[in-house]
Amino acid sequence: MAEIDDDLTAEAGSDLVFEVLDASRGERLDRFLAQSVPALSRTRLKSLVLEGVVTIDGVPAEDPGQKLKQGSVIALQVPEAEPAEPLAEAIPLEIVFEDADLVVIDKPAGLVVHPASGHQRGTLVNALLAHCGTSLSGIGGVKRPGIVHRLDKDTSGLLVVAKNDFTHKGLAAQFADHGRSGPLVRAYAALVWGVPDRKLGTIDAPLDRSSSHRDRMAVVRPGKGREAVTHYQVEARYMGASGAPVASLVTCRLETGRTHQIRVHMAHIGHPLIGDPVYGTGFKTKTSLLSEADRAAVEGFSRQALHARELGFAHPRSGEELLFESALPQDFEALVQSLAVSVK
């Protein structure tokens, strides 16, 4: 590829022009643009092609997958960003770290990350739109924070959000790589029923939508679904009224990040999360094995006992390796302290 403009930026309202060199001959248009304009995601660039703002030799391109010819001139007019959707709302946030590119949030339990059916208001995205204001670039698209990964509504803890397309693209690549070639770290504290047989273990079991409950995930046969790997370590065991182990505190480290992964994987090995209303309902009778005080503490805990305790990644712009830690929230810590009276 070759730049024709001397001052090439992806600012709203700018015109970007490229010449296709021999090395890019036969390449897809959207891939060529993604390499030429890294500030915009490939998905956004595909949309711009379909909107008719990309031309090839002066003719509007119609197909993002069109193969390019040597010597062709590609022009892209970057549109102004559209107003933010959904609406900004002044919702208090616990900010762990923030700069011009990203913000790390310590999300409380009960806060939905992204607007969806039944949750159009009061979400983390609504709060971020109000907090970030004009710092969100939304280059060539809608002004909104880049949600790179999610936490379930009732899971608390650390979450990173991108403020611009460059950062979103860089973070998304790290999460897609699952930390295999970089410093990505995702560790969760989980209170589970029972005690796994081994102190250290790995659950390697693919996940897919449940065939009987489409709103749930389920372990499926190898070769089906999506790869899912969770590493766990037992940190503490808690005794019941009889003195036998009845629950444990486990650290789960994600090698992949699938929907409900920890919740499904721990249930799959017979140790579902305490308080899980979806994957742990069959273990409610376990409370009868607890002391009266512990039983009251568990029954008063109104969510799954899962907290995103550690989050680490390389900053997409500086390359600096960042690692953040979050203490257990008050409700989780209170449950741990109640159970820990009989720790062994």
Summarize the structure.
By secondary structure, this protein is α+β, with helices and mostly antiparallel strands. The chain has helices at residues 29-36, 42-50, 124-132, 165-177, 261-268, 292-299, 330-339, and strands spanning 2-3, 15-19, 54-56, 59-60, 73-77, 95-98, 102-107, 146-147, 156-162, 185-193, 200-204, 207-209, 217-219, 229-239, 245-254, 306-314, 321-325. It folds into 3 domains: 2-77, Structural Genomics Hypothetical 15.5 Kd Protein In mrcA-pckA Intergenic Region, Chain A; 95-177, Pseudouridine synthase (2-Layer Sandwich); 185-342, Pseudouridine synthase (2-Layer Sandwich), CATH 3.30.2350.10.
- Count of the separate structural domains: 3
Query: CATH homologous superfamily name of the largest domain?
Result: Pseudouridine synthase
Strand content: 25-35%
Describe the largest sheet: 10 strands, mixed
H-E order? EEHHEEEEEHEEHEEEEEEHHEEH
Give the overall average pLDDT. Answer: 87
Q: What is the level-2 CATH architecture name of the largest domain?
A: 2-Layer Sandwich
